[in-house]
# Entry
Amino acid sequence: MSDASVDPATVAHVADLARVDLDEDEAEAFATQFADVLDYFETLDEVPEVDSEPELVNVLRTDEARESLSQDEALRNAPEAEDGYFEGPPVG
# Structure
């Protein structure tokens, strides 16, 4: 553990502000746990920073205009169609 300490009185004060009932043993336990969490955050400070952005590459294909389905071909497997459009259940 580092010098990042949380005393039980601070835990009890925060618990009181949050309207959480804690007894002395729970405040002690939470103080220890909070100190451990603060230590983990200090560990994150040791992670080296990334100096540059990775080179981004477009992995998608380029759009190409080509012939599409006719209206009859598009509606061929539709369960229901009306006036050249897909027909679905009413939304209400």
In short: The mean pLDDT is 87. Residues 2 and 39 are 7 Å apart (CA to CA). The radius of gyration is 31 Å.
